[in-house]
């Protein structure tokens, strides 16, 4: 099992110094820094996703990781639908 840190949430700044809304997760696996966008703009939701991600990494539970990815994709799809994007405009980055 890989050694991982507890992870840290943060928000990045734009080139103009403005704080961007998206929350990011930074953690270390076997001494290597990993950064992931958590997408939510709400800190509580970002904290929930951080805990899910860290639990999946700590246990090596691939199923938990995949559930987190599916939830993130569903959230992205819901955001696009709410924003009125057409089916041709939808993609996941």
Write structural notes for this entry.
There is one protein chain. This protein is 41% helix and 25% strand. The protein starts with 7 loop residues before the first strand and ends in an 11-residue tail after the last helix. It has 2 helices and 3 strands, in the order βββαα. Strands 1-2-3 form a 3-stranded antiparallel sheet, covered by helices on one side. It has helices at 43-59, 62-82; strands at residues 8-13, 19-29, 32-37. The protein is of the alpha+beta class and 93 residues long. It has one domain (8-88).
Average predicted local confidence, pLDDT: 78
- Radius of gyration, in Å, reads 15 Å
Residues in β-strands, percent: 15-25%
Count of distinct strands: 3
**How many domain regions?**
1
Low-pLDDT segments: none
């Amino acid at each position: 099992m890989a050694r991982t840190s507890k992870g840290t949430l943060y928000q990045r700044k734009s080139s103009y110094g403005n704080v961007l809304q998206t929350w990011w997760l930074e953690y270390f696996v076997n001494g290597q820094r990993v950064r992931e966008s958590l997408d939510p703009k709400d800190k509580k939701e970002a904290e929930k996703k951080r805990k899910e991600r860290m639990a999946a990494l700590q246990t090596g539970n691939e199923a938990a990781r995949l559930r987190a990815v599916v939830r993130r994709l569903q959230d992205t799809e819901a955001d696009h639908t709410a924003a009125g994007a057409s089916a041709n405009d939808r993609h996941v980055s």
